[in-house]
Hints:
Order of helices and strands of chain B: HEEEEEEEE
CATH architecture of the largest domain in chain B: Sandwich
Strand content of chain B: 25-35%
CATH class of the largest domain in chain B: Mainly Beta
Number of domains of chain B: 2
Shape of chain B: globular
Structural class of chain B: alpha/beta
Shape of chain A: elongated
Oligomer: heterodimer
Amino acid sequence: MHPFDIKTVLLAKHAQHVVLIHFPIALFIIGVVFDFLAQWRKQLLLAAAAYYNLLVAAIATIPVVVTGILAWQWELEGEKLKGILLMHLVMGCVSSVLIWVVWFIHRRAPRKHEEVLPGYRLPIEAVAVVVVALTGHLGGFLSGVNGPG
Amino acid sequence: MWMAGMAATAIVALGLLLAGSRMVAANTPQPASTEVKIDNFSFGPVTLTVPAGATVTWINRDDMPHTVVSTDDSKTFKSKVLDTDEKFSFTFSKAGTYPYFCSIHPKMTGKVIVQ
Lengths: 149, 115
C-alpha cells in the first residue's frame, strides 16, 4: 500500500477521521491559548488570531464529524455502540458543539472593542479544551496510539 | 487346540485393528487450539489450522473493543464489536484459507486455515 495511492486516501474507510481530527484539536487549543493571552495582554492582534483559529477549528469539525459517522456506518455497519466507542461518539459531539459555541461567542462580539468579549467565555473555553482533550484521548486509545499497541 | 488357535488369531487381529485405528487417529490433524485470543492489538495465534467443521472462538482479552471480520468481499464471517471478555464463534465447514482482520484496527490481521 503506497502512502500516496489515491485509493488509499479516498477509500480507506475510517482513515480520514483519524487524520482530520488533528486539525480542529490543534486549531481550537491554540485559539484558546491566543484568547487567554489576548485577555491577559490586552492585545487585539492576539484576539484576532484567536478568532480566526476558532473559526477554522469550528469549520474543521464538520468533516471530522462526517467521517467519524461514516466510519461507524461503514466499518461497524451502524451497530449500536457501547463502552468506549459510545463515550467517544458522545464526547466528540459535545466537543464539536462546544467549539462552535465558543466561536459563536467570539463572532457576536465586535472585535474592535476588546472589552466587549464576555468574561464567561473563558471558563467555557477551559471546559471545552478539557472535553476535547478527553475525546482525543479516547480516540487515541481506540486507535491504539495511546494504548499498549 | 484348534479353538485356542482361532481365539489367539482373533485376539491378535483385534489388537492390530485397534493399533491401526489409533495410528489413523494420531495421523489425523487435530487442532492445537480452536480459540483465538485477542490481546494487545493482536490475534493469537495469528494463523490457526483446523479441520473442516471446526468451530473457532475468538475471545477479546484486550482493554478495548475489537472486531473479527473476514477479508473476502462476501464477508464470510463478521462479528459485532467485542468488548473485553466477549466472544465470537464461527464454524468453518469448507476447507480453505480464511484471512481476517479487526475493522477498528485494520493492522490487526489473522488467518484460519481449514483442512
